[in-house]
TrEMBL record:
Cofactors that this protein relies on: FAD
Ranges of residues in domain FAD/NAD(P)-binding: 18-301
Domain NADH-rubredoxin oxidoreductase C-terminal per the UniProt entry, residue ranges: 330-389
Keywords: FAD, Flavoprotein
Official protein name in the record: Assimilatory nitrate reductase (NADH) beta subunit
Species of origin: Marinobacterium zhoushanense
Domain of life of the organism encoding this protein: Bacteria
């Protein structure tokens, strides 16, 4: 890979590049890491990032917010690494338009780039619902480093925060704001927290722990409108009529794929940019990966499948035959120091559950078996055996003969000292 160090401004034209990657988030960054491993790399690579800072780990924004990690720990590869790999990097100058027929793009500042191949790694945006008052100051999503800085600036002793969403991101945001001194309420539309990962018992243990720390958790609650004064949020009115005070309102209710650039360029899009097993889009020499892509009607938010996509695409771009396929995902969650593990079907139908609960030590394990095979697992507190359960799920091992001791991990002869 050749390296060309240019800082385009105005109407500058960068020399033709073999491969341009639009997006320097976690997916785009993982792709260049995978490309760096390949023996036959693209002749030249240009990465264009929207944010002014270098790539960082979005998964770690919550501990950054809470002060448990610093900026250096959250950052990924810096400019020096890109130089060493011979990769050109432009930060803070997002792509404004792409002409796929001419194989050119223009950035927001007016810089023009000619390319042979292009990868869309544009990620996603925080989902902001159409609610009365959504435009008020102090109403925000939780998606970027800038969001973290805004939340930290808003936090003060005695101030009230409302976080909408009882998923992992919402709970981490709420706990971070609580640690910053805000009186924080979590609103969850459903009847339990982390409803996609946990069953009712594990969710109950989690709620008890968080409320014990001082979080106010309200289940079966939805916002009817956001209220404010002089252009700034002051509270939220729930559908049951209650009014909650809010100096800061954080919406953590999922994301929407960022496909506006791809759609304008003429790529076939559904919920996201449609790709095949080689991460090709509807146009030749145009690819997509990560949260902005859709494969077999699946879109992505977890790291594991995106990492596999990056590995596949790196090989494809370097001339190898490789294909992406869907695989079960295990989720190892860290919610404010609480260990959780989840995989497979939770509350699986036509399955036999077995469970272990130690209320005193707040440890819980539940497995769902179908024909003697693990099809789902939830662990709370002690998650040591989670990876082993997931291995059994993937291999579809018949564990009928081990049923009596399954809740206590793998047989002694399989354990590594």
């Amino acid at each position: 890979m050749s390296s060309q160090r240019s800082e385009p401004t105005g109407e500058a034209m960068i020399n033709h590049v073999d491969l341009v990657i639009v997006g320097n988030g976690m997916a785009g960054n993982r792709l260049v890491q995978e490309l760096a491993k390949q023996p036959h790399k693209p002749e030249s690579v240009l990465v264009i990032g929207e944010e002014p800072r270098h790539a960082y780990n979005r998964v770690l924004l919550s501990p950054l917010l809470a002060g448990e990690m610093n900026a250096e720990q959250v950052a990924l590869q810096d400019a020096r690494w890109y130089r060493e790999q011979g990769i050109e990097l432009i930060s803070g100058d997002p792509v404004a338009s792409v002409d796929l027929a001419a194989r050119t793009l223009v950035t927001q500042s007016g810089a023009q780039v000619e390319f042979h191949r292009i990868v869309f790694a544009t990620g996603s945006r925080a989902n902001m619902p159409r609610l009365p008052g959504i435009e008020l100051d102090g109403v925000m999503g939780f998606r970027t480093w800038d969001d973290v800085e805004r939340m930290q600036q808003s936090a003060s002793d005695g101030a009230h925060a409302v976080v909408v969403g009882g998923g992992l991101l919402g709970l981490e945001a709420a706990e971070g704001l609580r640690k910053l001194g805000m009186q924080t309420t979590v609103l969850q539309r459903g009847d339990r927290l982390l409803n996609l990962q946990l069953d009712a018992t594990a969710a109950g243990l989690l709620r008890d722990e968080l409320t014990g720390r001082g979080l106010n958790v309200r289940l079966d609650s939805e916002i009817d409108e956001i209220v404010g004064e002089q252009g700034r949020v002051t509270g939220v009115r729930l559908k049951d009529g209650q009014l909650l005070k809010a100096d800061l309102l954080v919406l953590a209710i999922g994301v929407r794929p960022e496909i506006s650039l791809a759609r304008a360029a003429g790529l076939r899009c559904n919920r996201a940019i449609e790709v095949d097993a080689t991460l090709h889009t509807s146009h030749q020499n145009v690819f997509a990966l990560g949260e902005c892509c859709e494969f077999e009607q699946n879109t992505y938010g977890l790291v594991a499948p995106i990492w596999r996509q990056a590995e596949v695409l790196a090989r494809v771009l370097c001339g190898e035959e490789h294909a992406y396929s869907e695989q079960p995902v295990a989720t190892q969650l860290k919610v404010s120091g609480i260990s959780l593990f989840s995989c497979g079907e939770i509350d699986a139908c036509n399955a036999q559950p077995i469970e272990y609960l130690d209320s005193i030590h707040a440890e819980y394990r539940k497995l769902w078996l179908r024909d003697g095979r693990i099809v789902g697992a939830v662990l709370y507190g002690d998650t040591r055996f989670g990876p082993w359960y997931f291995q059994q799920l993937l291999s579809e091992q018949d564990l009928s003969h081990q049923r009596a001791r399954l809740l206590f991990g793998p047989p002694p002869e399989t354990q590594v000292a």
